[in-house]
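> forwarded from #structure-qc
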């Protein structure tokens, strides 16, 4: 009678983790959201850029000329049409470098523009100080904000002849002037952070 052959060792089969299809989909979206959050944000296409800026001397003072490129995104356009005014601020600084201490800030000026929309007349109003203009389209508003012509920045006696000054200018949306709910949105949405970088150059009267 032949001897009984030993049975080969049996190893337990690997158990595969079976997840419901809905759970797989949920895991996929969680991973996708994490990857998107860690990925670098793309450059903003609708940011304000400074095309040109200069200071021109006249008999009674020094004047700023500047050109910007800007376009209001759909979020800001919708806010205007719903009755929310937008405030833009043009800022200019003139500083005199000093090797022995901090730069001397000679001029720090700002101009505010208030933009509103009238749903009855379908027109836009742009106010700056005592000046108010009525415009028929958002494109006209953008052109008005984009061009700064002969804006007084300093008197003749404020700048010294022969000295060199560092000039800087920028244009930005002032979110602090928005209603409180929109200020909260501005903290989480880039659609409300419309501004240019400081544009700097040297100027010698």
């Amino acid at each position: 009678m032949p001897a009984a052959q030993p049975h080969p060792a049996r190893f337990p089969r690997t158990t595969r983790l079976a997840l419901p299809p809905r759970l797989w989909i949920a895991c996929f979206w969680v991973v996708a959201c994490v990857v998107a959050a860690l990925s670098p944000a793309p450059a903003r296409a609708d940011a304000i850029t400074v095309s040109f800026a200069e200071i021109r001397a006249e008999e009674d003072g020094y004047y700023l000329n500047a050109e910007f490129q800007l376009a209001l995104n759909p979020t800001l356009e919708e806010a205007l049409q719903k009755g929310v005014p937008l405030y833009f601020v043009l800022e200019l600084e003139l500083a005199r470098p000093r090797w022995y201490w901090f730069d001397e800030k000679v001029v720090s000026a700002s101009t505010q523009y208030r933009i509103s929309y009238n749903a009855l007349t379908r027109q836009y109003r742009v106010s700056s100080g005592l000046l108010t203009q009525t415009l028929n389209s958002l494109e006209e508003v953008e052109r008005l904000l984009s061009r700064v012509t002969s804006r007084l920045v300093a008197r003749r006696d404020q700048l010294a002849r022969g000295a060199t000054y560092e000039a800087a200018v920028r244009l930005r949306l002032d979110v602090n002037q928005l209603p409180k709910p929109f200020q909260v949105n501005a903290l989480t949405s880039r659609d409300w952070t419309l501004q240019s970088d400081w544009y700097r150059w040297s100027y010698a009267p």
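QC bot note: Residues 23-45 have pLDDT under 50 and may be disordered. The longest helix spans residues 21-38.
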